[in-house]
Write a structure and sequence with these properties.
By secondary structure, this protein is an alpha+beta fold. It contains four helices and five strands; from the N terminus they run βααβββαβα. It has one domain: Gcn5-related N-acetyltransferase (GNAT) (Aminopeptidase). It is 29% helix and 24% strand. A five-stranded mixed β-sheet has the order 1-2-3-4-5, sandwiched between helices.
């Protein structure tokens, strides 16, 4: 492997985490959707039961990537799981082992916590990521499952008098 070091982010790392989130959004051409702030990241990382956990990848003490994840639960397995919300490595540090190191840290934590699985999404146009996940990791692309989203800023059935 390379000189990449992995560590858990602390609330004090919120500005760094947010910066990497913005870099990810630029890569995904979704920067217009970023409304979070470093303070949002700090709150999410704070407390005895933080909303999210983050691994930071560093090279020579400089942040070069991150993996942001949180706990889920599988009713079928009867055990927790982890959901990887974001995995990103700065372009200059790709193909140097940072993504693999981040994922290995995540999988190690999942095993330590007796998780049934780790799940994540990948954009359908991101062929390098799809190839990495399927060929290098052996992950399965679940084509029978479609991701759904309900933006809470819009009317929804919970606040509407109409039946869906």
């Amino acid at each position: 492997m390379s000189d990449i070091q992995i560590r858990f982010a602390k609330p004090e790392d919120a500005r760094t985490v947010h910066h990497l989130v913005v870099e990810l959004a630029i890569f995904e051409k979704l920067v217009h959707e970023v409304v979070s702030t470093p303070d949002d990241m700090r709150r999410a990382l704070t407390g005895p039961n933080p909303m999210v956990e983050v691994f930071l990848a560093e090279s020579s003490g400089q942040p070069v990537g991150f993996a942001l994840f949180f706990q889920t639960f599988s009713t079928f397995a009867g055990r927790p799981g982890l959901y990887l919300e974001d995995l990103f490595v700065l372009p200059d540090y790709r193909r140097r082992g940072a993504a693999m190191a981040l994922l290995q840290a995540l999988f190690r934590v999942a095993r330590e916590r007796n998780c049934a699985r780790v799940e994540w999404s990948v954009l359908d146009w991101n062929e390098p990521a799809i190839k990495f996940y399927t060929e290098r990791l052996g992950a399965k692309i679940l084509k029978e499952w479609l991701r759904c989203r309900m933006e809470l800023g819009t009317p929804d059935f919970a606040t509407s008098s109409e039946t869906p």
